[in-house]
Amino acid sequence: MKPMTIVWLCVLVAAVLALYQVKYEVRDVKDQVSELEGELETEYKSLHVLRAEWAYLTHPERLKELNDKYLSLKPVDPVHMKDLQSATVREGDAEVVPTSGGTP
User: Fold this and answer.
1) Which domain holds residue 33?
2) What angle do CA 16, 22, 27 make, to 5 degrees?
3) Global pTM value
4) Are 78 and 72 in contact (CB under 8 A)?
5) C-alpha–C-alpha distance, residues 51 and 79, integer Å
């Protein structure tokens, strides 16, 4: 056999081995992607259920019924509201200093 034939044969064998290795790596990655897609679908379904539960729990009519049954809260009258500037600090209370947007 000629030396060039041996070189090309070695290159061919190396290429075939590399191709098989890549094939199995791609198969593993596809399996991982399928598994993650399944987990993602499960999370989407769970999120959908949680949103439906939240919509039910925060429904205004339901909240009104619970308020009437347990709390008996009444709506706030505008005459009972004050702005922060006109509020007075009682003796013994800590002084409240309003901040502008940031945390002190």
Assistant:
1) 25-70
2) 130
3) 0.53
4) no
5) 37
Dihedral (CA of 13, 14, 15, 20) sign: positive
CA angle 87, 89, 92 (to 5 degrees): 165
| CA torsion angle 91 96 97 99 (round to 10) | -170
What domain count does the chain have?
1
> Is the model's pLDDT at 103 over the cut of 60?
no
Residue 58 lies in a domain: yes
Assigned domain for 79 exists: no
Mind listing the pLDDT tens digit for each residue in 20-69? 999 999 999 999 999 999 999 999 999 999 999 999 999 999 999 999 99
What is the longest distance spanned by two Cα atoms in the chain?
A: 106
DSSP per-residue letters across 17-35: HHHHHHHHHHHHHHHHHHH
Contacts of residue 67, Cβ cutoff 8 Å, sequence gap at least 6: 73
- CA quadruple 11, 12, 17, 22: dihedral, nearest 10: 90
